[in-house]
Amino acid sequence: MPSHQPVAGMAAKDPEYMDPQPSAAASASEPNRNKSYDPKKPHITETPITRANWYKHVNWLNVFFIIGIPMLGCVAACWTPLRWQTAVWAVIYYFWTGLGITAGYHRLWAHKSYNASLPLKIFLAGVGGGAVEGSIRWWSRDHRAHHRYTDTTKDPYSVRKGLMYSHLGWMVMKQNPKRIGRTDITDLNEDPVVVWQHRNYIKVVFFMGLIFPTLVAGLGWGDWFGGYIYAGILRIFFVQQATFCVNSLAHWLGDQPFDDRNSPRDHVITALVTLGEGYHNFHHEFPSDYRNAIEWHQYDPTKWCIWVWSKLGLASDLKQFRSNEIEKGRVQQLQKKLDQKRAGLDWGVPLDQLPVIEWDDYVEQAKNGRGLIAVAGVVHDVTDFINEHPGGKALIKSGLGKDATSMFNGGVYLHSNAAHNLLSTLRVGVIRGGMEVEIWKRAQRENKDINFVKDDAGNRIIRAGQQVTKVEQPIVTATAA
Ligand SMILES: [Zn+2]
Ligand SMILES: [Zn+2]
């Protein structure tokens, strides 16, 4: 969380709310929001970190909230016996406050992926505040910038700056408020629950983060201090670290089934840690979908909760991308991967780059001892292959200097697809007037383009059985005719 709004921040003093007509620009991150900000003075982040000034680069308030307090909690836990009721409550409250972030802050407010009734909004704003990760308004604004400017310098928690930076560093080190990309949060400024939570953020944090979990354990089974340490402080620590993983782990670990131009990734481990936010490659492609996991067997408890709330009438208008659109993205990415794989293979010199040889030259060179063989108008140099020919030396030698098209295509032996592929890597020329060249000439004469299927890099795709050396078999059955 940047310097102008720390974890338990100065939200209530945000001058943006004094703006009578908040415009899209005004609701974005504005450097002059910070009263101590002087546009003439360079921001501390613009000066290099030295031994003399390093402490000025650190956001000490955030260090206290996200590192200091948890450490104190760990120490205190050594002297505080953990009662089973408190342990159960801490886990339950962990899920509630986690959901406040994932189902509330993230999918409801940052992405508008569904509508929530007022009671549900109040619940999510409360438990989300209990996770101590800033106000909804502040969190959603940064998150929208993260989606809009993913992996760029305007991304508030870009993983390109390192895994630790995207996890914690962006909060522990001061950020230049001018740097974060602008986003429109007019809708959030019009949501009374968001505005109320932002204005009363410190009260919400102390009540929902510490007082409420302590009260439940204290009034419920008399474990006041245990409730405070386990369901309060340590639970905050775990829920913070878990949700921070969406910014770090989800941009670092796993697959990219929909798009690999940016860092977001899908992984079940991240999903387990983040209440289902681990299908992050999908999420960055389809951010307004209320789901992160689209398969029934994938772990996305946040989605399940939203779905149950919709059945209970608490949530509505659950947004879902059509599976046709999702599958299109998946197929395109698969195609890209396939093209990359294909590009790494040797398919032989493209025919249009091969020299054109006269038939007589070809025969002459073969007579002079070069192991040349012509199949379908393409000349191949098989000198080094003669001894390895699975059908024996004699058979291949009998084709040298001749048109071996029919021999190769069933006259002597109907060669396999793999044999056609291998042959293509040996090609050295095309015969003038040979089959492939003939087709080009005819197409040019008739002023037609020859449309081959090409991959991303413009290379012709050779599907199995479509090699130039492969000649169509004549139709032999009466019914086929
Ligand atoms: Zn992300
Ligand atoms: Zn998101």
From TrEMBL:
Listed name of the protein: Acyl-CoA desaturase
Reaction catalyzed: octadecanoyl-CoA + 2 Fe(II)-[cytochrome b5] + O2 + 2 H(+) = (9Z)-octadecenoyl-CoA + 2 Fe(III)-[cytochrome b5] + 2 H2O
GO CC, alphabetical: endoplasmic reticulum membrane
Compositionally biased spans, kind Basic and acidic residues: 32-44
Domain Cytochrome b5 heme-binding: 354-432
Membrane topology annotation: Multi-pass membrane protein
Subcellular location(s) of the protein: Membrane
Keywords noted in UniProt: Electron transport, Fatty acid biosynthesis, Fatty acid metabolism, Heme, Iron, Lipid biosynthesis, Lipid metabolism, Membrane, Metal-binding, Oxidoreductase, Transmembrane, Transmembrane helix, Transport
Transmembrane intervals: 60-80, 87-106, 204-222
Gene Ontology BP terms: unsaturated fatty acid biosynthetic process
A Pfam family annotated for this UniProt entry: Cyt-b5
Subcellular location, principal: membrane
UniProt family annotation: Belongs to the fatty acid desaturase type 1 family.
Example GO molecular function: stearoyl-CoA 9-desaturase activity
Annotated organism of origin: Lophiotrema nucula
Residues covered by region (Disordered): 1-44
Function description: Stearoyl-CoA desaturase that utilizes O(2) and electrons from reduced cytochrome b5 to introduce the first double bond into saturated fatty acyl-CoA substrates.
InterPro entries per the UniProt record, alphabetical: Acyl-CoA_deSatase_haem/ster-bd, Acyl-CoA_DS, Cyt_B5-like_heme/steroid-bd, Cyt_B5-like_heme/steroid_sf, Cyt_B5_heme-BS, FA_desaturase_dom, FADS-1_CS
CDD domains reported in the protein's UniProt record: Delta9-FADS-like (cd03505)
Taxonomic superkingdom: Eukaryota
Cofactor(s) required, per the database record: Fe(2+)
Co-factor remark: Expected to bind 2 Fe(2+) ions per subunit.
EC number annotated for this UniProt entry: 1.14.19.1
